[in-house]
Specification:
The chain is of the alpha/beta class. Helices cover 42% and strands 17% of the residues. The strands form 4 sheets. Strands 6-7-4-3-2-5-8 form a 7-stranded mixed β-sheet. Strands 12-13-11-14-15-10-16 form a 7-stranded parallel β-sheet, with helices on both faces. A 6-stranded parallel β-sheet has the order 17-22-21-18-20-19, sandwiched between helices. β19, α21 and β20 form a beta-alpha-beta unit. The longest helix is centred in the middle third of the chain and has 32 residues. Bound molecules: adenosine-5'-diphosphate and magnesium ion. Belongs to the helicase family. RecG subfamily. Keywords: ATP-binding, DNA damage, DNA recombination, DNA repair, DNA-binding, Helicase, Hydrolase, Isomerase, Nucleotide-binding. It comes from Candidatus Thermokryptus mobilis.
Length: 721
């Protein structure tokens, strides 16, 4: 066949494919399809099992065979009626009637009625899939799966088999690329090009893990001959996806360890020695252990890339401070990056306090600092006079030039990807990097996002801590809560009352927080000093309020979510979280982590709309999730458990926030459930890089090629080429 096809390859731009063209190719690019091969990797969102298509007449004749059977079946026919019925209970039911030429069958939906009503028009040619039952005296499919067919549908793509359903955007649909069309497109590409697909995994791995060949997997992921084929194909593609990511991480890890020259800090000096004498508490064993691990990295002439994990309150800050003092002792500067200004300010205050009168120059650089002062600080940074500089992200990005930056500490910032290191190196620094995270990352995620980092864990809390008591309070029982707080404050405790502030409704949220503050201050607690803190305040005012709270001049601090991370006032033992259902799990955990820092019993109250707690009204999925979150927090203090649940409830994309999402977007793998595959993939990838770091062995050529294909835009890969 000497047709046009011969000039295209799987790597060709999709717009040259027959029937695509410029416009459609742009819409396809939005969903990640740029080349022909990407179509083959375009994962269906679900499948409809149409391997058993039967007619209504068949069904009636063989009712004994189908009724009560486990198997669902497919009917294909036209929409001849649609209507909304009202059941005797008052509940609405949407009923669709389909005629397949041999008889009629009804389909019924009990919820999202408006949605389903909109889906169907009279005369639509549809396939419906479900288990036939008798309902209201008629043959019925309850909540069937469905999709739309065209008259010309060739029977072997759309029916009589397991059929893929593709994600489609409204843009794609407006250009005629609905799931049906995509199905045809992909089917034709499979027909014409599948033979050109080359295996990208070494034979050894395929044999060892019983993987199916890539060719087979890429065909069967769309048009499987059986459920089994689908399952094994999916498994192979998940493995492949996770494996190549791990291979990238393994390679980066190798480069850091072998090529990049870092700083070798040679001594533990005067500052560290004196600091350990003035420290007001004994370090825990876990803290000692991780300090040793960090010191080992700092001593080595390879750059440190270490993740310091530890639950809220486990004492990461002092560990970081010691690392920064080591740097200072060796004549290097440190940058400490916090995610918010408020937190930077608070760390600055903590450090000043802990360092007492030690001769080390520590500076705060945030957006709220006045220009004149800022200029001064910038010049101290440039001259090397400022030894420890605390600030936000901007610290290493905009116009800040260090004389000799030796260590970067990134606090509470699980969104700081490994890639950002490149920014630093571009600026001519290759400092040691310590990333601290209080959100305990589930192991699977840690392996993925921080897969090229070394990990230290503080798995022990400082002595003398008491378990925080957590209680869910319906919002109509707040009076009781206020009385409790009043009694505790009279005993000398302090309290936080936190209101949600989320981006979408920021203005309204802030207004309501302020209104509540005024109400609490004037009506509920007139005898106490009540303060307000939020992110929109000028920095100086904020610092004043925080220091008043620390000095116990303020007893109750009303706050928006700005205090979520890092704030450390051990005398505060009460945390009230208003509208707790609006917070995410890790946020709730972080907020609760603000208390329980001293030796006295602490209390966390999760205030929830009382109507939400009456569970029989929980039809709304989002609302039931919200209540579930609150219940999880009330049931455990274990940050790791909470993080696992969080991942389960939200999925990895959201867990990490949108900024990180590119890295977390998997087509086939699901980080929450494919942990086992991930661990195998990781083990194999790291072994291969260890044995053949440049992937020069003939059996690894396929890996090198694929790695460059997949991650060509990642930094550092130039070295593998
Ligand atoms: P996080 O890990 O959440 O950042 P912090 O570093 O803020 O925790 O520490 C929480 C509190 O515990 C702080 O008040 C800190 O001074 C205190 N702390 C840290 N280490 C110890 C220790 N070994 N013994 C007693 N208190 C400690
Ligand atoms: Mg901290």
């Amino acid at each position: 066949m000497a047709d046009k096809r011969a000039t295209l390859t799987l790597e060709s731009d999709i717009r040259y494919l027959k029937g695509i063209g410029e416009k459609r190719s742009l819409a396809l690019k939005d969903v990640g399809i740029e080349k022909l091969i990407d179509l083959l990797y375009y994962a269906p969102i679900k499948y409809i099992d149409r391997s058993t298509v039967i007619t209504v007449a068949d069904l009636k004749r063989n009712w004994w065979k189908f009724s009560g059977a486990q198997e669902a079946v497919t009917f294909i026919g036209r929409v001849v009626d649609k209507r909304t019925l009202v059941a005797s209970s008052g509940r609405e039911i949407f009923e669709l009637t389909i005629d397949d030429g041999t008889g009629k069958i009804s389909c019924s939906w009990f919820n999202k009625i408006e949605y389903f009503k909109r889906q169907f028009e009279f005369g639509d040619f549809v396939a419906v899939f479900g288990k036939p039952t008798i309902f209201k005296g008629k043959i019925n499919l309850i909540h069937p799966e469905f999709d739309f067919l065209t008259e010309s549908d060739s029977i072997n793509i759309h029916t009589g088999r397991i059929v893929p359903v593709y994600p489609s955007t409204s843009k794609l649909k407006s250009l005629g690329l609905n799931t049906l069309k995509l199905r045809e497109l992909i089917s034709s590409v499979i027909n014409d090009y599948i033979d050109y697909v080359e295996e990208n995994l070494p034979h050894k791995l395929i044999l060892k893990y019983n993987l199916v060949p890539l060719k087979f997997a890429l065909k069967s992921i769309h048009f499987p001959d059986s459920r089994w084929d689908l399952e094994v194909s999916l498994k192979r593609l998940k493995f492949e996806e996770l494996f190549f990511l791990q291979l990238l991480l393994a390679r980066k890890h190798y480069e850091l360890k072998h090529f990049e020259k870092g700083i070798s800090f040679t001594k533990i000096g005067e500052l560290v020695r004196r600091f350990s004498q003035i420290l007001p508490f004994q370090l825990t064993n876990a803290q000692r252990r991780v300090i040793r691990e960090i010191w080992r990295d700092m001593k080595s002439d390879r750059p440190m890339n270490r993740l310091l994990q530890g639950d809220v309150g486990s004492g990461k800050t002092v560990v970081a401070l010691i690392a920064m003092l080591i740097a200072a002792d060796n004549g290097y500067q440190s940058a400490f990056m916090a995610p918010t200004e408020i937190l930077a300010e608070q760390h600055y205050a903590t450090f000043l306090n802990l360092l007492n009168s030690l001769p080390v120059k520590i500076r705060l650089l945030t957006g709220s600092i006045k220009p004149k002062e800022k200029k001064e600080i910038l010049s101290e940074i440039q001259s090397g006079e400022a030894q420890i500089v605390i600030g936000t992200h901007a610290l290493i990005q905009e116009g800040v030039n260090f004389k000799n930056l030796g260590l970067v500490v990134i606090d509470e910032q699980h969104r700081f990807g490994v890639m950002q290191r490149a920014t630093l190196i571009e600026k001519g620094y290759n400092p040691d990097v310590l990333i601290m995270t209080a959100t305990p990352i589930p192991r699977t995620l840690a392996l993925t996002v921080y897969g090229d980092l070394d990990v230290s864990v503080i798995d022990e809390m400082p002595k003398g801590r008491r378990k925080i008591k957590t209680e869910i309070i319906p919002d109509d029982e707040k009076d009781r809560l206020y009385e409790f707080i009043r009694a505790k404050i009279k005993e000398g405790h302090q309290a936080y009352i936190v209101y949600p502030l989320i981006e979408e409704s920021e203005k309204l949220d802030l207004e309501s927080a302020i209104k509540n503050y005024i109400y609490l201050k004037n009506e509920v607690f007139p005898e106490f000093k009540v303060g307000l803190i939020h992110g929109k305040m000028p920095g100086t005012e904020r610092q004043e309020i925080m220091s008043d709270f620390r000095d116990r001049k303020i007893q109750i601090l009303v706050a928006t979510t700005v205090i979520e991370v890092g704030i450390d006032v051990p005398n505060a033992t009460i945390m009230v979280i208003e509208n707790a259902e609006r917070f995410g799990l890790s946020q709730l955990h972080q907020l609760r982590g603000r208390i329980g820092r001293g030796e006295r019993q602490s209390y966390c109250f999760l205030v929830v709309k009382s109507s939400l707690l009456k569970s029989e009204t929980l039809f709304d999925f989002e609302e039931s999730k919200a209540v579930e979150r609150v219940k999880i927090i009330a049931s455990t203090l274990d940050g790791f458990k909470i993080a696992e649940k969080d991942l389960e409830l939200r999925g990895p994309g959201e867990f990490f926030g949108t900024r990180q999402s590119g890295f977390m977007k998997f087509k086939f793998a699901n980080i929450a459930t494919d942990q086992k595959i991930l661990e195998i993939a990781r083990k194999e990838a790291f072994e291969i890089i260890k044995e053949d770091p440049d992937l020069m062995k003939p059996e690894h050529f396929c890996l090198r090629e694929e790695l460059v294909k997949r991650y060509s835009d990642s930094v550092d890969l130039a070295k593998v080429s």
